[in-house]
Amino acid sequence: MPTLYRASFRQLLLIGFVLIAGLLAATALGGLFTLERLSLQSREAAEQAGRLGGQLQQLGERGVSMERAARQFLVLEDRQLRQRFEESAAEAERLMAALQVQAPEATAAAAWRGLLAEIRQRLDQAAPARRRDQGLPELFRALEDQRQEMAETLHRQTEARSQALQQRLEEGRLRLGRQVAGAIALAAGLSLAFGVWLSRPLRRLEQAIARLGENQFEQAVEIEGPSDLRALGQRLDWLRLRLAELDADKARFLRHVSHELKTPLAALREGVSLLEEGVGGTLSADQREIARILRDNTAQLQRQIEDLLRFNVAAFEARRLQRRPTELAALLRGLVEAQRLQWQAKQLHIEIAGEPLQAEVDPDKLGLALSNLLSNAIRFSPPGAGIRLRLARRPGQLLIDIADQGPGVAEADRAHVFEPFYRGERQPKDALRGTGLGLSIVQETVAAHGGEVELLPEPTGAHFQIRLPHASV
Fold first, then answer.
1. 121-128 contacts at long range (C-beta below 8 A, 24 or more positions apart)
2. What is the C-alpha to C-alpha distance for residues 202 and 198, in angstroms, rounded to an integer?
3. Residues with Cβ < 8 Å from 46, sequence gap 6 or more?
4. Measured between alpha carbons, how far apart are the two ends of the chain, in Å?
5. Which is nearest to 454 in space by CA: 440, 468, 464, 445?
6. pTM, to two decimals
7. Which of 53, 370, 446, 466 has the fewest CB atoms within 10 Å, i.e. is most exposed?
8. Per-residue pLDDT tens digits for 104-120
9. What DSSP letter does each residue of 324-343 carry, written as one string?
10. Backbone angle region of 433, left / alpha / beta, with phi > 0 → left and psi within -120 to 50 → alpha
């Protein structure tokens, strides 16, 4: 395993493909050679059967030639006819010898030779005895019978060989099928093993990237696997350390800015208070107005600094998720119940619709984002109006809609509603002016969950939709 780990992911992938391809190729070649060998045996058996059939036919023809020559010799007493008989007999004996090689256990060959010897013996008798001999035709018929018996023996032997070859073909087919099935199973096993082994470091990389995306910098990135993936893990760990350092620098910067701005601001406010109290002398009306303006602006500046610090803390916390299975309808009902006094004071009607859905989310962070949207809906809704909360599911997405019947968002403000500290032109009457951070925190929280929030166009009221991709479980 350490030797393999020194190879790169691409090299290991190539090794896996080569092993699987080699296994399948070896199986295919083995099957091909087996089929070729059996095919050759079948071809040889067919050729041998054809050759035996030809020899048996020639043997029958030689038998007819011998009988014709013998009969003519008996009538004409011509030595050439006897010579022709012997030539046919010699050729017949050669054919019978070749056939006997294929069936050495057959008794027909010996009986055939005995009959041929008896025919020769009768042809060698004196002329008067030959003419009186009436048994020669019977001997030739017996000779043909022995040839037929030899043919039947060879035919049975050929059939037995054909059946044996057919059995070997079937056994070879079954063996080849088992080999192919085994090779496929082994190839599938190797593919699965390589896939699991190589995907493990990829899953660790994915988990490490997800932790970095959620600002979890405590756990070191350690990837065990191919050399290039280990190198990538080392780069990710360097990135983790760098991001942790930048995050710490950001926190220090905010602390320093807070301290550096609050100290002179406190001195400025104290000085303005002293001026208003007349410590430095009695102020005229114009001077008092200037002091009031200074006091109001220093107070506003202090609130903005504190809002900025709160927003940075909230945005930082929004990305540090603690996910767990959460029933979203129950989460919405809890948020509505928590703000019961606010919406009952305005006699609002709140409706929660949709099927029960579970999601792997951080209920505290997502609950804060939904609470901000619900609080805005209550704040902007006129007395007696309605607010609709709806849960829905799409392929690969989970939707949360919050819609009210308030004045809605002005067209000029729609592109800026999620910007920090931005306040739209349509504000509720007789209500405290907001900080403009609520929707920014909503966007940060939803983005940390891998989703997005959008202000949908509506003729009246505001309609916000949160989409959490692949969040449903």
1. 123/70, 123/73, 123/74, 123/82, 123/85, 127/77
2. 7
3. none
4. 37
5. 464
6. 0.45
7. 53
8. 776 777 787 787 787 77
9. EEEEHHHHHHHHHHHTHHHH
10. beta
